[in-house]
Amino acid sequence: MKARDYAIAIVTGDTLAAKLVPPPPPEALELEDDQPELRLAAPGRPAALAIVSGRDARVPPLAGMRDPAQRARILHALANHELQAIELFAWALLAYPAAAAPYRRGLVAILADEQRHFALYAARLAALSTTFGDHPVTGHFWNKLDHLRTPLEFACAMGLTFEHANLDFAGDYAAAARACGDIATAEALEQVHADEIRHVHFGWVWMRRLAGEAVDPWDAYNANVRPPLGPHRARGARLDRDARRRAGIDESFIDRLDAITAKRPSGEPR
Ligand SMILES: [Fe+2]
Ligand SMILES: [Fe+2]
Description:
This protein is mostly helical and 270 residues long. Helix content is 55%, strand content 1%.
C-alpha cells in the first residue's frame, strides 16, 4: 500500500473507524511518494465530531479530575487531541512527500501510537459512560496549518510545542487521576506520557538535523515557530525536566525553557 493512499484515507475518512485503521506493517507500506505536495485544508469528520470554536467546547480545569463527570470531559478533550494528532501525522505524510524516508517512517510510527492513545482514552470514556462525540470538539491543531510549511516547522510545532507541553500536562493529569483513585485512567495517561517522550525525541532529532547541527537548538526552535506558538506554549506551569532529559533535549534548552512563563492558548499565563 502507498503511504499516500493510507494518509488520504485517514485525513478524509468521515467516520471515526476510518481514523483508527492502523498503518500496514513497514514492509507492506510504500513510503516513497513522487506526487506533488498535498495540503488538505480540513479533515473529513462524522457530524458528531465536526470542529467547533474553542468557545463552544470548554474543558474543565485539572481540579475537575475529582468529579467523574468533569473527568469524562477532560478525557474527551484529550481523546480529541489524539484524533487530531492522528490526522495531522497523516496530513504531514501528504504535505512532505519529499521528506527523508526515516522522517516519513517516523510520522507513520507516531501516527500508530496516537491511534493507540485514542483507544486508551476511549476505553476510559466508556468506563465513565461517555462516548467520543458526546461533547463538542475543537480544531486546536488543525487551526495551525500555517505553522507547518516544512518538515522542520512540523517538528517544531507538533514535536517541540504541542507534544512537548504534553510532557507536563499528561504527567499532571496522571497524578490527579491517581490522587482521586482512578488508577486505570492514571495508567492510560502514564502510557501516553511515556510515548510522548519518544515523540518529543523525534521532534528534537529532526529539528537538529533539518536546521543544522551547528545551529544552537534554542535558536533553531525559535526561528521555526511563530506566534501564537513558541516556548511559552511548549510547557505547562510545572516543567518536567526529567522527561525532557529522557527525550534527549539538551540541558541548556531545558534551562531556557524553565525561564519562560507557560501560557494558555488564550495568551494568559498558566
Ligand atoms: Fe498521543
Ligand atoms: Fe504524541
